Amino acid sequence: MRRRDFVKGLAVTTATASTALGQKAAPQAQNPPPAPNATDQGTMAVQPSAASSPKAMSRVEQMARFHTPNIPLSQPDMVALTEARYFTPARYATLVQLCDIMMPPGEDHPSAMKAGTPEFLDFYIGASPVEQQTMYNNGLDRLDADCMKQFNVPFAKADAKQADSVIRPYLKGWMNDHPPRDGHTRFINLVHHDIRTATINSPAWAIAAEASGDRSPGVGLYWTPIEPGIQTWVKEGSVEATPTPRHKHS
Amino acid sequence: MAQKKVDVLIIGSGHTGGMAAKILTGKGISCTMLDAGPMLNFEKYREMKPVNELPFRGFDAPGRLPHVFQANEFNANQWVDEKVVPYYHPPEAPYNWVRVRSVGGRSPFWARQSFRLSDYEFKCKDHDGFGENWPISLEEIAPFYSRVEEIFRVTGHKDGLPQYPDGNFVEDNSPWSGAMQRFVNAGQKLGVPVTKPRSSLGKDGLASSLNLLIPDAVATGKLTTIPNAIVRQITVDKNTGLADGAIFIDRHSHREMVIKARVIVLAAGCLESTRLLLLSDMCNSSGALGHYLSDQIYGAGIICSVPEARDGKAAPHLMGGGALIPRFRNIKTKAADFIRGYAVNVSCSNGPFEARALPFYGKELEQKLQSYNGSGFATNIMGEALGHYENHVTLNKQVVDAWGIPTLNIYTKYTSNETNMAKDYVDTMAAMAEAAGFDILVKNYEFNPPGYSIHEQGTARMSDDPKEGVVNKWNQSHDTKNLFVVDASVFVSAGWQNPTITMCTLSMRACEYLAEEMRKGNV
Predict the structure, then answer these.
(1) Chain B residue numbers touching A234 (CB-CB < 8 A)
(2) What residues of A are in contact with residue B248 (Cβ under 8 Å)?
(3) For residue A59, what pLDDT is reported?
(4) CA distance B361 to B383
(5) Half-sphere exposure for A117 (CA within 13 Å, toward CB)
(6) Which residue among A129, A198, A240 sits closest to B62, beta carbon to beta carbon?
(7) pLDDT at A41 over 50
(8) A232 pLDDT tier (thresholds 50, 70, 90)
(9) For strand B154-156 and strand B199-200, is the pairing parallel, antiparallel, or unpaired?
(10) CA distance A213 to A108
């Protein structure tokens, strides 16, 4: 049953495509009358079984045998930068400095800066629930305020020793799902975790890992949305969630 | 096509629905099985993919699954989105309802720990006075446990402990690693048994209803399976008072359909089954429906490093392996400030060390990670949460799901019993780790919100007394004799054990009873 639907769908696609191509190749001054036995797009839409003519079926079967061509694809990060626009300039400068300090380059892996982590976190936190945004905004402000108070320089301009003195007191070991509860301690440990995750999972890291001999960096079993995902159907479905009022039928 | 009355309508296709289908069709009874979700196509919907190619670098879409701590960007699409099927909990009493809607239910995704309950669970009230006893004993259901263990190919070691009943195992006689042996020895001095884990091997990489149960039912030619069928009501014949079918909604089109059945087997998963009974306004003469919700506390634990394994100096067989500490509190002695008990998952890793356990950053952290690589040792709790009457669910008619069906309010919270239990656990594990010579890096007393373990149980509990429970000891509704509830909603107490093997055992037993009753004409 499902295969038959699939074949019918292909038939519609094929007819649409060929019609469009035909129009492009030979524009008409006026619409010609349909050729006898031709299956136009409208007919296909309302009567998919029209594709069962031997010629149409042959075309459909040919289409069904077609395999996806192997075209190498690239990540957008290879050629473009994420535009940072959520954090204020001061907070963003603090975040950049934090990324630089917390995840410098290693022997065989890139830095958070090279991985585009500040830009990614600006995008990600900008799209996150307000609690997450508040934690980041307060945490970045607090880092800056602590640095100003102790050294009279903003965190973004602090040297490594100055930065360390406002970060280290708040670092704690913690278990999955249970970061420290205290506000600023929580921020320092979570932002550290986020910076590491965003960097290690970046395209730049994958390229470096592959170059150093790791053939499958960060590979996991990914589930795609299923048929085509419950939310999509609900959002795009034309039928209202609330059932139609019931009438009595004889 | 003409509507026909089916013999048995099974609602839900997870482990318990799958078991019902296998048993009933094996007895020659025709079954129709509905599932609210789609059929999984493992070739089509899964692929190995590098994390850097995912849109959110592994974080998943912001705010998408706030209650599913288990979610990541790889598996996010397998969980139910709470914007589609919402539920309510008071802000101060969070509940993590972790759901899957697809044929096979949660069975393709479980962790496979496979345990029997003991009479410390079945006769819990006799032991400590809290709650109610189950109307069954281990002796009664042991033969069914054995058959389920054979189907699931449970591996384990026979330890002869009454609180950790032995089973029909694929014997595990593997030796302990050196570090694990030190932990075992430390436990012996404190009276804490450290045993081999028990888990389902299944076959072909899965231990789900999809591959272990449903195929047998399909082979009989007597199973009809319908995906994307969201049941919104079980219908009742006004003349007989018996269930006579169900109304379901097609997930895609929202088309409403009516199906007629002689018998209903409800296996939608603990809270969904109870939701459906509440929606159908049935099976609640006891007033117990929706109450006594329980599960297990997870999340508290310790993280250690084995010093001799650091800097790449681990001797052969020093590291690796896992263990299970079965409940040991309140067996022969009595703990001061909590009843019941907890079990512990123990893991000894020769892989990368967890960065979050080390309070360092930058190059210093990288050096530490290199040094600590292959030296990890951690424990996690599985503690019984008490099923108080006040832990309950109700229908929320003001908030409906995407198909217009009223949703659930979930009111539950842990008490000092769980808090004291977690404290005892962390302190005991820390003492054992210290005695074994491990460096303790993290001690976490905090546990996850209710629901996190994905072991929700109760809300339609079994009892011999129709005034105390929703179903009898055969999982048969006291009020509606042709309705059987076969999932964990019938559990009377949670125990510390992963409930899956017990759920399957009870479903098997209930369906054999049902088949015999149908043969006799009693149902």
Answers:
(1) 84, 402
(2) none
(3) 87
(4) 34
(5) 32
(6) A129
(7) yes
(8) low
(9) antiparallel
(10) 10
Beta bridge partners of A65: none
Q: In degrees rounded to 5, what are phi and psi of residue A37?
A: 70, 0
Specify the DSSP element, H or E, that contains B398: strand B392-400
Judged by a CB distance cut-off of 8 A, whether residue A75 touches chain B is yes
pLDDT of res. B266: 98
| Range list of β-strands (E), B242-314 | 243-250, 256-266, 296-297, 301-305
Task: Determine, for residues B363 and A222 on separate chains, whether the beta-carbon distance falls below 8 Å.
Answer: no
- Average pLDDT estimate for B181-192: 97
Which residue has 């998952």 as its token pair?
B345
Give the pLDDT band of residue A239 (cuts 50, 70, 90): very low
Minimal-distance CA residue of chain B relative to A242:
B404
CB atoms B48 and A220 under 8 Å: yes
Q: Could you tell me how far CA B23 lies from the centroid of its own chain? A: 21
**Chain centroid offset of residue B283 CA:** 24
- Spatial distance between the Cα atoms of A66 and B234, rounded to a whole number of angstroms: 47
Collect all residues of chain B within an 8 Å Cβ-Cβ radius of residue A167: 361
Classify B346 as helix, strand or coil: strand
pLDDT at A246: 63
The dihedral through the CA atoms of B20, B21, B26, B30 has a sign that is positive
- Model pLDDT for residues B283-297, shown as the tens digit of each residue: 999 999 999 999 999
Q: Which residues of B touch A102 (CB under 8 A)?
A: 361-362
Say if the Cβ atoms of A178 and B57 lie within 8 Å.
Answer: no
Q: Is the model's pLDDT at A4 over the cut of 50? A: no
Amino acid making up residue B460: A
B-chain residue closest to A207, CA distance: B52
The size of chain B, in residues, is 523
A124–B contact, CB cutoff 8 A: yes
CA distances from B486 to A45, A61, B472 (A): 46, 47, 11
State the Cα–Cα distance between residues B400 and B398, nearest whole angstrom. 6
Cβ separation B59–A197 shorter than 8 A: yes
Q: Which two tokens stand for residue B118?
A: 């003991």
Q: Return the half-sphere exposure (C-beta side, CA atoms, 13 A cut-off) of residue A90.
A: 13
> Is the confidence at residue B120, as pLDDT, over 70?
yes
Q: Check B362 against A202: CB less than 8 A apart.
A: no
- Identify the band that residue A26 occupies on the pLDDT scale cut at 50, 70 and 90: very low
CA-based nearest residue to B425, from B403, B406, B397, B444? B444
What does the block give as tokens for B502? 């017990």
Q: How many CB pairs under 8 A join A and B?
A: 166
DSSP characters over B95-125: -------STTTTGGG---B-----HHHHTHH
Inform me whether the C-beta atom of residue A106 falls under 8 Å from chain B C-beta atoms. Answer: yes
- Residue in chain A lying closest to B406 (CA): A242
* The pLDDT of residue A2 is above 50: no
Total residue count of chain A as it appears in this document: 250
What is the Cα–Cα distance from B215 to B223, expressed in whole angstroms?
10
CB B484 within 8 A of CB B506: no
Supply B7's token pair: 């013999």
Q: Touching check for A49 and chain B: CB below 8 Å?
A: no
A203 touches chain B (CB under 8 A): yes
